[in-house]
């Protein structure tokens, strides 16, 4: 079988930047999906492309087990942009046991581990079979996992391992989010006569100060800590000698399990518009995602924890502050654990990389997890 370094170097070398910011060569997931399909076919596993958006497919393969139950191994094909990287984003350079490039850890490293695990399980089936899915659009609007859920239908999937860089610790909880735009409405004027205008930037400063000082009123989660709310972008002003009549900010509110993001947004809207009645508008959310809180005793997370403990690895379930496809799978009735090689601190970074030894270890741990379900747990 192809080594993890060879496989990951080939995958990193195929640009698959999410086209959320534009389009052109290297944007979209079609080329990497085709590579995954062909690599699996070369190792005896039939896979197919399932188009979710025009030219943007998922790739899905099924490895039968000896019994009817299936475990989903899901990771994503797309990456974030490469602007500002300090290395060649697509060279797949290997140095000191690490492979460098965009997507190395987020999330082609986890996907490579899953692909190699699928080949092992195809050669010597476990009781449980595997559905292996590389999905599009995780870095933007999650259309890939939603398409996958529709395709799975009533397949007997008992749980999922979602490939993300967790440092090889099992994560059964992560935050959700709701993102929205807030607008301050002033009255534009000439900067030489500011008293005749209403400065929207000055108005917005009151909103920003309030957001910085007023923490979300919700109890912390035992694995995730507190909910958070912060300003991520600001836009205002038309010139150096014009009092701005409009100013906008974007807000990122990270939600906890049990919070409905739309309810959170409605409360935030009431709170912020009350600060300056008639001068503040709050748009409907442009991103809504739910938190994850999978019971640790669910079959797949529990099996993974047992395997980690037997391997002398940290086995206690953890929480992660970032969002993943796992929350969508869990809402569809598939208990999910997030797991994979690499660190989230390397994801999206200027010199993104992953340790190849961790990719190999992830393969071994995933195979052992699938095999440990042979005892018949459901």
TrEMBL record:
Residues 172-274 form the Peptidase M20 dimerisation domain. Its cofactor is Zn(2+). One of its GO terms (molecular function) is metal ion binding. PANTHER family: ACETYLORNITHINE DEACETYLASE. Keywords: Hydrolase, Metal-binding, Zinc. This is M20 family metallopeptidase. It comes from the Bacteria.
